[in-house]
């Protein structure tokens, strides 16, 4: 369970939700790529063989699979073992790591970091500590892309008969959190508040961080 489970039980249940319903998620998601244009924006200018970190990679399909197809070295991170097992079975050309993004510390930097439809499952407090953690894995000049909602607050959905938690911060707060890690928000594509569509953020490392993940020198 997440440490904040007493505050947000629905947020705390996200890892178990995806673990329990891994097969249903795979069937619902399918292999059809709908995010090609977003991957174009994320990887624009990256050379063949660039290292891409996919945070909340699920079973690796179709996004990580597409990144591998494009010639990138993909590291996929997810909290659900069942989804990672499926990724490992289907995609041998990538590295798969079971980890919680809230405590992620791989000890290396990447040429791009993606958190597509994963970061927004964290509650507000965890987003405030996790976004700088993701940014700390960026090489100088590397982009970070993540999805959120169109406004600050909590949005509850339902999946497989269970509550599905989402949250977002203000755009200005995301920018402030990243600025402390030497990153700047470059573009924001606002999703519709009612229609099915995420708000997509693209930030970039401007300088190397002056401190570690815990704030120490």
From TrEMBL:
One of its GO terms (biological process) is methylation. Residues 52-141 form the Methyltransferase domain. CDD domains: AdoMet_MTases (cd02440). It comes from Sphingomonas lenta. One of its GO terms (molecular function) is methyltransferase activity. This is SAM-dependent methyltransferase. Keywords: Methyltransferase, Transferase. It holds the Pfam family Methyltransf_25.
